[in-house]
Design a protein that fits this description.
The chain is an alpha+beta fold. The chain is built from five helices and five strands.
């Protein structure tokens, strides 16, 4: 994935909800190592909290991560969140494996007012179901939220229909 340009005219330090996708270097399935994958989740949650974000949903797939970050404070800086998280997790990976963890850049989408956050969160949590890694999001150990229960997110299909980022 080439490093995408940040959207012109968008401030990434505003009260907003962001959908993020980032991919491992060469799409290697590094997150089959569940201990390291859990470290990636824990780092994301901790860094997000320190920077004024909730992680409304996350899923760590074998070769990529999706998450929804909801800014809760003015000045919560999405670019810093992603940079700090990828730097911390990439450093730990490189110490053990002598090569990088992440491809450069990430894909971001600022959610519009009419895009209901819970519907976007459901899209994120259902990734392992669509990939046939689990029958239900609650069966997949590397997904969750700091803001909602999995049940609250799974009921979101009834809110304004299905969401698709593409």
């Amino acid at each position: 994935m080439a490093q995408p340009k940040r959207l012109p005219g968008i401030s990434y330090d505003q009260l907003a909800v962001y959908f993020i996708t980032t991919v491992t270097l060469n799409r290697v399935k590094v997150f089959t190592d569940h201990e390291f994958a859990q470290f990636v989740v824990d780092a994301l949650v901790a860094i997000a909290k320190n920077l004024g974000f909730q992680i409304s949903a996350y899923v760590v797939m074998p070769d990529h991560v999706h998450f929804v970050a909801t800014a809760e404070e003015e000045g919560a800086d999405l670019e810093r969140l992603v940079k700090d998280w990828k730097q911390k997790t990439g450093f730990e990976w490189k110490k053990k494996h002598k090569h990088g963890l992440w491809q450069k850049g990430y894909i971001d989408r600022v959610l519009r007012a009419e895009e209901h956050t819970l519907s976007v969160c459901r899209y994120v949590l259902e990734n392992p179901v669509r990939a046939q890694l689990a029958a239900h999001p609650s069966d997949y150990p590397l997904c969750g939220s700091t803001q909602f229960t999995i049940d609250e997110i799974c009921e979101a299909i009834q809110i304004k229909g299905w969401w698709n980022p593409y």
